[in-house]
UniProtKB/TrEMBL annotation:
Family: Belongs to the polysaccharide synthase family.
Name this protein carries in UniProt: Polysaccharide transporter, PST family
GO cellular component entries: plasma membrane
Subcellular location: Cell membrane
Natural source organism: Paraglaciecola arctica BSs20135
Domain of life per record: Bacteria
Length: 493
């Protein structure tokens, strides 16, 4: 049987992570709405050029130091101090590169105004390196309420300064000063919220880097693979097609990222606590994956079927060409969910070498397929290639996890077959009912809401019927029902 206490902690952690993402995203949206009325597009362009270098460096120098401590349940003080010291070294190196590169980048873009901005971002990067390593314990020990407070406080600090500077000076300096404020706030909060006091130490650098080298390979190959489609379109497609694809990718990925990222964040420390008992870890991981897919699969199918109405309501008629892309990439979202959960499981199991090699293989596969597809078949050829390579990667990832004993595909399918059938019935029902609903000529927003409600009802009813008819009651439905029953029981007492 899976460890129920760990499973409960993971579920609680997921809720906190969802709340954290929603809060941070909401602050981001408010910030965009306010700044868009104060600053002009040229201001955004200057800032975009300034953060190009720092963003790229951050992306390709992710060594997974935090993951090394979370995965190692026997981490010592020397391990913590070594990670803190290595983080400072990394931040210092990045800051120096940014300082040296600023004039060159200004010449390249013919934009001298970005030099002081890059200097400001380099200071922020340097400060981030000194953040107390003790805050990792918020996630490691699954105290996600503290994790929520720490990250949201940092975002609120950044948000407040950004808006204040924009309102006062009406300048693009609102962006770097906001980021700087967030870094300073995180530094002070990390030492106020955590009793741990780090010191300079490199005693265990070999063991940390032995873990981190594979995380570095994974992050770097993943970053290249992730940006490959956009890079190819910028070369072989028009600016309009690139814009449509970028928005389509973001919209189609919302259900998957909003589901997968919180689950992955809470699953990593939870599964790491079970890495001494592979059978319990395996059962808990299958339960996590099945429960996540119970939401992800119908969400992806629904988004694919209702893509046309969603685009018209959310994006407007100017984005009609995004419909076909979203219909395909919505299904790709399921592979992203499985990938995110798989990454947490492999890290928790200490199989980062497999993760690194797999990401390298995925990068090579996409590098071989995507350029050919976009050259010969255009933007839709690229879109289908992204889905196909994602499906191939998903199958290989699941098979690899079964091969090393981390997963049983049969056990997973026994839990999600009802979900797959229910989502298929929902797909067929919506395809039949959508034209009928449109014939009433109601406002499109009302139509979309009605379609969503119908989709949820069809999926739920079919799932419940199949669950009651099936011999095996093992599955995410049972876990959801248990939660509902426990809530009802508490209220009745």
């Amino acid at each position: 049987m899976p460890d129920k206490s760990i499973a409960k902690q993971i579920a609680t952690g997921t809720i906190w992570s969802v709340l954290m993402r929603m809060t941070i995203r909401m602050l981001g949206i408010i910030s965009v709405l306010i700044l868009a009325r104060i600053l002009v597009p040229a201001d955004y362009g200057i800032v975009a050029k300034a953060i190009l270098l720092s963003g790229f460096l951050e992306l390709v120098t992710q060594f997974g130091f935090n993951a090394a401590l979370i995965q190692n349940q026997n981490a010592t003080k020397d391990d913590y101090d070594t990670v803190w010291t290595l983080s400072i070294i990394r931040a210092t190196a990045l800051s120096i590169v940014m300082l040296i590169s600023a004039p060159w980048l200004a010449d390249y873009f013919n934009e001298v105004a970005i030099v002081p901005l890059i200097y400001a971002y380099s200071i922020s990067t340097f400060i981030q390196g000194f953040t107390n390593v003790g805050v990792i314990d918020f996630q490691r020990d699954m105290n996600f309420n503290f994790d929520f407070k720490f990250n949201v406080f940092q975002k609120i600090s950044s948000f407040s300064v950004t808006i204040a500077v924009a309102l006062t000076w009406q300048s693009y300096w609102a962006f770097p000063l906001g980021v700087l404020a967030g870094s300073v706030a995180a530094l002070f909060a990390s030492f106020l919220m955590s009793a741990y006091r780090p010191r300079f130490c490199l005693t265990t650098w070999r063991s940390i880097l032995n873990f981190s080298k594979w995380m570095f390979l994974y992050e770097t190959m993943g970053a290249i693979s992730l940006k490959l489609d956009t890079f190819l379109l910028s070369k072989f497609a028009s600016a309009e097609e690139l814009g449509v694809y970028t928005i389509s990718y973001e919209v189609s990925g919302m259900p998957s990222t909003e589901i997968a990222m919180p689950v992955a964040r809470s699953a990593l420390p939870g599964l790491s606590k079970l890495n001494h008992n592979l059978s319990k870890m395996k059962e808990t991981y299958i339960d996590i994956l099945a429960t996540t897919l119970m939401v992800a699969i119908p969400a992806a199918v629904g988004l694919s079927v209702l893509a046309e109405d969603i685009v018209k309501v959310v994006l407007g008629n100017n984005w009609i060409s995004a419909i076909a892309i979203i219909e395909v990439l919505a299904l790709f979202g399921v592979t992203r969910v499985i990938s995110a959960c798989s990454v947490s499981a492999l890290i928790a199991a200490g199989k980062v070498n497999i993760l690194g090699r797999f990401s390298f293989f995925m990068m090579l596969m996409r590098l071989a397929i995507l350029p050919v597809s976009v050259i010969y078949y255009g933007i839709m050829g690229l879109t289908y290639s992204v889905l196909i390579t994602g499906l191939i990667g998903m199958i290989l990832m699941l098979w690899t996890q079964q091969f090393i004993g981390l997963l049983s595909i049969k056990a997973l399918l026994l839990q999600i077959w009802r979900i797959i059938i229910a989502a298929s019935v929902m797909h067929i029902s919506l395809n039949f009912l959508v034209p009928l609903i449109h014939s009433f000529e109601w406002p499109l927003l009302i139509v979309l809401l009605l379609e969503v409600v119908i989709g949820v009802l069809v999926f739920s009813i079919v799932s419940i019927v199949l669950y009651n008819l099936s011999n095996s009651k093992v599955g995410p439905e049972q876990r959801v029902l248990n939660i509902i029953y426990s809530k009802i029981s508490r209220k009745s007492l």
